[in-house]
Amino acid sequence: MSTVPTATISRLVTYLRILTQLEAQGIKKTSSEHLADEAQVSAFQVRKDLAYFGRFGTRGAGYTVPTLRRELRRILGLTRSWSAAIVGMGRLGEAIAHYPNFGAYDFLLKGAFDIDPHKVGREVAGLTVQHVDELPRVVREKGIDIGFITVPHEAAQDAADALVRAGVKGILNFAPTVIDVPKEIHVEPVDFLAGLKRLSFYILNPQLREEVA
Amino acid sequence: MSTVPTATISRLVTYLRILTQLEAQGIKKTSSEHLADEAQVSAFQVRKDLAYFGRFGTRGAGYTVPTLRRELRRILGLTRSWSAAIVGMGRLGEAIAHYPNFGAYDFLLKGAFDIDPHKVGREVAGLTVQHVDELPRVVREKGIDIGFITVPHEAAQDAADALVRAGVKGILNFAPTVIDVPKEIHVEPVDFLAGLKRLSFYILNPQLREEVA
DNA sequence: ATATGTGAATTGATTCACAGCG
DNA sequence: CGCTGTGAATCAATTCACATAT
């Protein structure tokens, strides 16, 4: 268990999603082969990914949906709830803030911030937009763990600096920017422009494609 | 050049972004080391990534910013323009449709679609929302290459099927869903909920982190 | 009988060290 | 002399094959 591939974590998230659907459909049993089909990976891969964390199945029988789902939620840290704040209340920030069922995933949006005085004071998704200067206080008082960056490219590093100073533990970065943060802060990029450019490449070079992250 | 790692393509996109900034700042020369710093990778990695596609530098001197930028745009297929259509005109779809400077990247949004009759007919970002049934005609008439899926999870596979039937060549999938498409169609996932869950894992297991995709 | 769990083999990606060129 | 370009070496991830458990 000393080192787990990043790709494994991404796939665990996918398996969890599939198990959640299966559970909602009332299906009780599954197998590495079924999960592999749904996740578009090999059954070997599913078993190896799970093996990094333990043994969750029954030989000859497969996996019990609720059990495996519970284990994956525990592994991914989704049995507790996480508090988040969003920096950048333009259209993208608003869309993210309104994302339905945030709470259903145990992510609680507890703060919305911007530097633009015209945006400060507005109501968005039940939150009053505050100035970024308030970030350290709000992060402390509300116990915010995660920051979302939804500002334009030029402002992304400043937003990251502000979030790090305020004390968040991780950042979900929607800006098309490689941000520089202390190594103990984890950053997950969510960069749709980059995805669009990769798409351009792969449409023109279909033969050079193996697998998608 | 027979096979190029997916991660290389992602990094080329990053290098291009950095070069674009350098060019905007009027900087004419750079080096693998400088690019590596900005992109948070090693200089070896930069040179190896470029080597998959040719030789773009001058030994002893480094790279010429405008030249390397032009070459990367060519490699990634960004010297032509791409036409896109978006399926799902909820908040996320609207936010994406309004994304500033879409055109600046030579991506042209030429159609907006939904199945909800209440949304059909509305104006969004200069486009009239059309029913998904119109997709095949519009894709054909407007020469649309790329489809964006911004519908909820439950509708994602149907949206993908509609886009594939209409004849798009690639899909940018914002839904939290592994969609099933013919293998010649490339799909790029842009899944922020998955990013959020990975973040949860890495905040709880900081020791298990190596690199971020 | 059947499907998991896992060491070994293979494949792929990154790092290295230095040859090659300006 | 400096920095790129690249084969060789290392390191990591995936695939395989089968022993193992029910």
Overview of the molecule:
The structure is a homodimer of 213-residue chains. The first copy, chain A, is α/β, with parallel strands linked by helices and 213 residues long. Chain A has two domains: 6-75, Winged helix-like DNA-binding domain superfamily/Winged helix DNA-binding domain (Arc Repressor Mutant, subunit A, Orthogonal Bundle); 82-194, NAD(P)-binding Rossmann-like Domain (Rossmann fold, 3-Layer(aba) Sandwich). In chain A, 42% of the residues lie in helices and 17% in strands. The first copy, chain A, is built from eight helices and ten strands. A six-stranded parallel sheet of chain A has the order 7-4-3-8-9-10, with helices on one face. In chain A, β5 and β6 (127-128) form a beta hairpin. The model of chain A has no long low-confidence stretch (mean pLDDT 95). Chain A binds a DNA duplex (22 and 22 nucleotides) through residues 3, 5, 7-8, 31-33, 42-45, 47-48, 50-51, 55-63, 210. Chains A, B: NAD(+) binds at residues 88-93. Chains A, B: Belongs to the transcriptional regulatory Rex family. Chains A, B: GO terms for molecular function: DNA binding; DNA-binding transcription factor activity.
